[in-house]
Design brief:
Distance between the termini: 74 Å
Order of helices and strands: HHHHEEEEHEHHHH
Number of domains: 2
Bound molecules: zinc ion
Strand content: 5-15%
Radius of gyration: 37 Å
Largest sheet: 5 strands, antiparallel
Shape: rod-shaped
Number of strands: 5
Strand order of the largest sheet: 4-3-2-1-5
Length: 273
């Protein structure tokens, strides 16, 4: 069990032989080296000992160590130039990246532009909270595509942003669901992207919602039975705060945004701001 004894040995200095420190930390080195010089040029009559020579050797080692430290510092300097994880440029990091600030502003503008268009489309169409609609339910059995009246309950506003219109990479596609209550008592979630929600508001370019299943475009959209002009809260429409947009900016890079056409998507919407 050698390992048990590791670190329990008493350290002894190879220069002055005192216990409790080693040659690197020896406080006697400079004094002994000075004495060595004095003996050599005849100004001291002290007899030359082993510890004088050991002190000279230790002093030389100290100088070498210091020189190596300086050289290493000079060498590692260009290597320490890190790249910004957002824009890949050197000389700054994500926290003080001016490019990130620009993209942040672009996304905020794009998002508010999208929310404004969504809010006005909903209001214009009369599909506000409380609107009575007729829903075409695709079901198996006798009456496929039966119509059920339903009331629009709420919009998932915290999850709705300009990425709802993004139809590119799966990683960034944003699906939200509209909650409605059918008259047979069941709460139903309508996925705006997949069913007919996208057909009922804002079909002109740029589209408010992506088309996920173009082959289902023959699907009857909601039929409006009784309109509600309840506006969406303006605090939501005009707010720059958005959890998922913050995540997007925090965890992805500019090259990813370019690669996945998210920059183009944001620019399209920001132009409408
Ligand atoms: Zn010592
Ligand atoms: Zn940067």
């Amino acid at each position: 069990m050698n390992k048990m004894r590791y670190g329990k040995r008493i350290t002894r200095c190879r220069v002055c032989w005192a216990a409790g420190h080693n040659s690197v930390g020896c406080p006697e080195v400079d004094r002994l080296a000075e004495e060595w010089h004095a003996i050599n040029n005849g100004t001291s009559l002290v007899k030359l000992r082993y510890d004088h020579a050991a002190a000279i050797r230790e002093q030389r080692k100290r100088k070498d160590r210091e020189a190596k430290k300086i050289a290493k510092k000079a060498l590692s300097k260009p290597r320490r130039k890190s790249r910004c994880s957002f824009c890949s440029e050197t000389g700054h990091n994500r926290r003080n990246c001016t490019e990130l600030t620009k993209v942040q502003t672009l996304f905020a503008k794009a998002n508010i532009a999208w929310k404004r268009k969504f809010a006005s489309a909903i209001k214009e169409a009369g599909y506000g909270v409380g609107a009575l609609v007729s829903l075409t339910i695709d079901s198996w059995g006798e009456d496929r595509k039966k119509k059920i009246p339903a009331i629009i309950n709420s919009f998932p506003l915290p999850d709705m942003n300009f990425m709802c219109a993004y139809a590119g990479s799966w990683d960034f596609v944003t699906n939200t669901q509209l909650q409605i209550t059918t008259t047979n008592g069941e709460d139903t979630f309508m996925n705006e992207g997949t069913d007919s929600f996208h057909c009922m508001v804002g079909d002109e370019e740029p589209r408010l919602f992506k088309k996920l299943r173009p082959w289902r475009d023959d699907l009857t959209p909601f039929e409006l039975l009784h309109a509600s002009y309840t506006p969406l809260p303006s605090e939501w429409v005009e707010s720059e705060e958005d959890k998922s947009i913050s995540w997007l900016l925090k965890n992805n890079s500019l090259s990813e945004f370019k690669w996945h056409s998210i920059m183009k998507h944001a620019e399209t919407w920001a132009a409408l701001y």
